Amino acid sequence: MSKFSTAERGSRLDHLRIKHLRLIELVDKTGSLTAAANRLSLTQPAVTGMAHDLEAAFNATLFERTTRGARLTAAGRMALERLRHSLASLDAAVTASNASVVEPLIRIGVLPVTSISLVPAVVRDLQEQGTLPRMSFHQASAGSMLELLHRGRLDCVLGVLNAGTIESERFADLDFEYITTDGLLVACAPDHPLARRRNVRLQELLAEEWILPEHSTHTRRMVEGMFLAAELPPPQAKLESSAFYANLAIVNATSMLTMAPTSAVRRSEKEGQVHALVLKTAPLHNQVFFITHKQGPRMAGLRVLADAFKRHGANYLPK
To answer: Which among 68, 79, 107, 94 has a CA at the least distance from the CA of 16?
Structure first.
């Protein structure tokens, strides 16, 4: 691939159109220039020319022709990762421009537990102040929401993370603002034999049946890490579910144990549904962050939300 000066590359980039950028995405999705041409309603020669234009503008080989069609090279995949957010932002801009409401829509990812407590408090206060932005809420695992944010499908995330996630190169394009800290507690039914005990040992918990989140979740890794740090095998899940309040309801009706965020356990404990066990081990904590994309839209409502979550974060964690 020939080398071009910065000015020459800039000139070539200026001649690219949206269809050029869509081509990279479609080749990755379909594995074929022909299929991409059909999706773009273009002829094969036109798409081939677009591929050459892209490679000249990026000054790199983006496509690799194969016997089965075409695929992206390493440079092509890297370009696509950067472009996905821009393409998603373009889609959002088109949707917003066609909407009857002029106020921009903020797409926010929230964890189920924060949507029960922290989010309602923030929404109430912003509504009373007349500064509540228009929002669309989405719920998924922390990792899934970060991926959606990375791809431009969300504008912000109120998520639980650990230091390893924040430092991950995969999310170097994201900004993290600390909001609060939520713990994790082991809960049982109020009439469970362990509820009458203080300073329960981890070894004793291994004899119980557990409701735990799926293996891919942050909370499940925290549970397993707590036992492994004590040189004990992690408990096996009798039931797997990431719906914390449903898990606590099942615990209330059975002799099973679960681990859930402190805010969820304390709320259920106050209602007489569960009992939080006191363990002979250091407490577990989750940090909650307000996360945005560095290259994402700088809507005024995002700053309003971040500031509101930070104000309420200090009072979020029950004692």
So the answer is: 79
Nearest by Cα to 184 from 274, 272, 273, 266: 266
- Virtual CA dihedral for 250, 254, 257, 260, nearest 10 degrees? 20
Which candidate, 66, 74, 65, 83, places its Cα nearest to that of 23? 83
What are the tens digits of pLDDT across the range 81-133?
777 766 666 666 666 665 555 678 899 999 877 777 789 889 999 999 999 99
CA torsion angle for 166, 170, 173, 178 (degrees, to 10)? -10
If you classify domain 6-96 with CATH, what class do you get? mainly alpha
In CATH, the number for domain 105-319 is 3.40.190.290
Distance CA 222, CA 206 (A): 16
Residue 136 corresponds to which tokens in the numbers above?
């669309």
Please, where in the chain does CATH 3.40.190.290 lie?
105-319
Residues 6 and 205: their CA atoms lie apart, in Å, by 63
Per-residue pLDDT of 21-65, as tens digits, reads 788 888 888 888 888 888 888 888 888 888 888 888 888 888 888
pTM: 0.62
- In the chain, which residues fall in CATH 1.10.10.10? 6-96
- How far is the C-alpha of 41 from the C-alpha of 288, rounded, in Å? 45
Residue 187: both structure tokens together: 């809960």
Q: How many CB atoms lie within 10 A of CB 249?
A: 14
